[in-house]
Amino acid sequence: MARHFLLLFFAFACASMHAQESQSVFDFLNVSTSSHANALGGRNVSLIENDASLVFQNPALLSSVDDNSLNLNFLTYMQGSKMGSAAFVKTVGERGTWGVGTQFVGYGSMKETLADGQVLGEMSAMDMALSGMYSYNLNDFWVGGVSAKFIYSKYGSYSSVGLATDLAISYFDDESDFSTSFVAANLGGQVKAFGDVHERIPFNLQWGFTKGIAHAPIRFSLTLTDLTRWSKNYYYSADKEPGFGRILMNHFNLGVDIVPSDRFYFALGYNFRRASELKAAGSSHMAGFTCGAGLNIKKFQLGVAYAKYHVSAPCLSFSLGYGF
Fold this sequence. Notes:
Layout: H1 2-15, H2 35-39, E1 69-76, E2 82-92, E3 96-113, E4 119-137, E5 142-155, E6 158-173, E7 178-192, E8 204-212, E9 218-224, H3 244-249, E10 252-261, E11 264-271, H4 272-280, E12 289-297, E13 300-310, E14 313-323
Antiparallel strand pairs: 1-2, 1-14, 2-3, 3-4, 4-5, 5-6, 6-7, 7-8, 8-9, 9-10, 10-11, 11-12, 12-13, 13-14
């Protein structure tokens, strides 16, 4: 069964590796609402934790979440915009775990204008996605996961609907405290376009590693993202076209956890692409750096993180979890 799952996973992933997209819709799917993931650079698909907020980045991580867990997340995303998510996880038998979740972004109210600048009035904009997720323990080390998403966006009088799926495979060795995961996220397309032209969904092929240090409360993570995008036209640079070295580093997210006990963690991260593009846009202060902390108090989990997604303002993310 494990061999069949791996063959199916890589068949779907390879079928989508040709997608070098220049335009995409539903890009909010690539923004993490997990405070722990945001503290580690914004992307992490390999962290084995009892944290339901991480399942939006990798559905195979459902297997590490306690039965009957509820998780709520909130992110102050740029001026006037708010982003959040919610997830519930339930175990099924000895090997299976399922989950349901939702992600949403509210952009607030803004002026609706014509092309010549004439103001028509006020309009609102929002994005949302509903997800059903499932993971299965293939053996003592390997876990497979899949999620199905219904995506809806509405900007004023325009709306769009999409369907997508995530496929994931994770490996974890408890004795060596090492884990690795491979995720093909957002495989799908628009069912209903905003206009006459259907646009791409932001497919993201990711590979991550997490390793704990023996006899030290430290855990390192490396996540490689956008592994199908190597065109220089995809990456922003203000002065000149980015070289291969810069394009290579744009795929890297580094993170480190300091875990002095099971009840507390402190995390630091660095997102190379975000740092490069924020500096090119005129912001060098804390560009790319992230940090955060979390507490586990009986059945409660609390987390907070700082990151900078835009030159205008920093972002704070908050996570709250409870095990029934």
